[in-house]
Amino acid sequence: xKTNNLGYPRIGSNRELKKANELYWSGxxxxxxxxxxxxxxxxxxxxxxxxxxxxxxxxxxFSLYDQVLDLTLTxxxxxxxxxxxxxxxxxxxxxxxxARGAQKNGQDVVAMEMTKWFDTNYxxxxxxxxxxxxxxxxxxxxxxxxxEAKNLGIITKPVLIxxxxxxxxxxxxxxxFHRIDLIHNLLPVYFEILQKLxxxxxxxxxxxxxxxxxxxxxxxxxxxxxxxxxxNNKFPSLKIILANYFDCFGENIDTALxxxxxxxxxxxxxxxxxxxxxxxxxxxxxxxxxxLGVVDGRNIWKNDFKKSLAIIEKAVTALGENRILVAxxxxxxxxxxxxxxxxxxxxxxxxxxxxxxxxxxKIKEVTLLKQLASNEIDHDYSIExxxxxxxxxxxxxxxxxxxxxxxxxxKGIKTGDDQRQNAFATRRIKQAEALQLPLFPTTTIGSFxxxxxxxxxxxxxxxxxxxxxxxxxxxxxxxxxxxxFQEESGIDVLVHGEFERxxxxxxFGEQLDGFTFTKNGWVQSYGSRCVKPPVIYGDVSRPTxxxxxxxxxxxxxxxxxxxxxxxxxxxxLQWSFVRNxxxxxETCTQIALAIRDEVVDLEKAGIKIIQIDEPAIREGLxxxxxxxxxxxxxxxxAFRSSASGVADDTQIHTHMCYSEFNDxxxxxxxxxxxxxxxxxxxxxxxLLDAFADFKFPNEIGPGVYDxxxxxxxxNEEMVHLLEKAAAVIPANxxxxxxxxxxKTRHWDETKKALIEMVNAAKKMRVAxxxxxxx
Length: 774
Prior knowledge:
Blueprint: E1 2-3, H1 16-25, H2 31-51, E2 58-59, H3 67-74, H4 83-88, H5 91-100, E3 102-104, E4 107-109, E5 114-116, E6 123-125, E7 128-129, H6 141-150, E8 157-161, H7 163-169, E9 171-172, H8 183-199, E10 204-208, H9 218-234, E11 239-243, H10 253-257, E12 263-267, H11 274-281, E13 289-295, H12 305-319, E14 324-328, H13 350-353, H14 359-373, H15 383-397, H16 404-411, H17 424-435, H18 452-462, H19 468-489, E15 493-494, H20 506-509, E16 513-516, E17 523-526, E18 529-531, E19 535-541, H21 548-556, E20 561-562, E21 564-567, H22 569-574, E22 577-578, H23 584-604, E23 609-613, H24 628-643, E24 651-656, H25 665-670, E25 675-678, H26 688-694, E26 699-702, H27 715-726, H28 747-773
Parallel strand pairs: 1-14, 2-8, 7-9, 8-10, 10-11, 11-12, 12-13, 13-14, 15-20, 19-22, 21-23, 23-24, 24-25, 25-26
Antiparallel strand pairs: 3-4, 5-6, 16-19, 17-18
Helix pairs in contact: 1-2, 12-14, 16-23, 18-19, 23-24, 27-28
């Protein structure tokens, strides 16, 4: 029996990668220093896994920004717009330009699109494909990192996204072909990579094909069969581990089991029944092994050894020990690095801490499970098994978990509690009368730049170096300056800037019962952006108002409308580590009722526009379409429940980003938000087609500039995007706003971009008035 790991967090235990990237982008360290920081993280990760008994240690799971972008560069699939930039800049700056865009030495290139990695909060850079796309080996990163580990005395298992999944992750940039048609062009470059890895001494290679968990077409399944037969023909001695995760194989199971690979990796956390399906099918070849993903790679709860051992022992009984690998369910990049760094009992109490495991601890769990299952440690006398059993039992019986008042409130929900008083057509008239906004009203998504000074105030306040009064005075000053800038710029609907908030989910979790927090539980969201998800351990309720104070203060400063800013129940659920002892729908409904209380209190305080952000609605979709209806039913009801306690003339906004809406557009309409703002600039307004084809009835704010890029778009660029929007959506339904919040941007670029945005809206108003006159 072996131990197998699919991937390890690459941010560093203390976010060393984030800090190094940002220093490089600001010109404070050299490329060599950045690369050295990456090498130090890789070395630490490889040694940690080797010391903790992992047999198959991954390499090429590290990335400076994103693993899909790494592969795009490796395969030479570089969009044509970067050709000139590539001639005059090094490959590292080309890489970051593709990820973030660049304005440098008179060159101006926009970033590639970014979207969610399956149903996680990780974002990847979307490959772009043309009809006759050519591929070539442009970067040898995968080979270089294998050699780097070999020089440390560690023979790793290189990890690559499989050819079919790579193509399906991308997007056609012209009509007349399907990206899967490029498989014959692509495969020779994979052969070249595998040949070089084998020549360097690699015996195992992990190819990730997570699209095997989705509903595939016959053509896509045929491509899978073709690819792996070709790889086996050319590399019969190379042991291919085919990794599927986030769900079961479903109707793809026969295709998968017929593939000539060494090992199938199964995610038995998200789909435990598939082991029985495979063992009972009789279709697993006698020379093929199973990697059992029994340790949850996406959540932070301690493994239940007794349950995992029962699964492992079932597989061992059927196949024998030598055909079994014990593993996490998926890459551990979705887990924080090390629970040992949580040393503050006030932040994370010992009682709750004993229920948790981060990436380092999960590696140890994998090894312990292998030792227990293979009788290297006697079950009956194992201290580790006894401690694990005790911790899991303590969690089940803890009085911290359950709140009967919350449970009874959920049971008391009545039909109609999730509906506004009247339909949107009626509400729209009342809102227009109450708000008196111009055509193409301008707003932002919520947050403004959190400068080092703002973050330092929060740190000093938490350390007790600032009193509450001193801290509030600083935040009030920053808020007032932000309100004044928005007034001077001509923005129509203002925001207070959210300077009191650390994170759009963590801030609310800190004020809700049933949540706890970590000090160093960071995970990567994209690039250098790391988030520290709250931990939902028990029933959720709102003891006191959370945002009313700052919304009231901001509104008192200006005669213009100031939006109340909230995070929606589905996003709070999705972007937290969620308790796994009750259905997620139950937890989401509890959160929705807490947010509903806040919405009602904001309205009572005179806030007439309230935004309830739900960027994670689509992210929460199950991977298999046959399971969508149930999820969408409770998720949409949760949003409506949070928003439906207000009068018709109170305008409810929501925001979504980095999502494809075509296949759930009816459900988006069913949310019944008065205004929806969406990310649109990287896709050049393509996402609006779904809303136009559907004849979306409510108002829409398509983002006109990409806040994830440091570049400042021109006025002409924004006008062009708005003209594209106005060509498919009636002008009286359109709002003008950035793609997302401005928290991570700098003030100078923010001010320039927002001024250009307001001017673009003014030009559109003039053009619309001219058309009416004509």
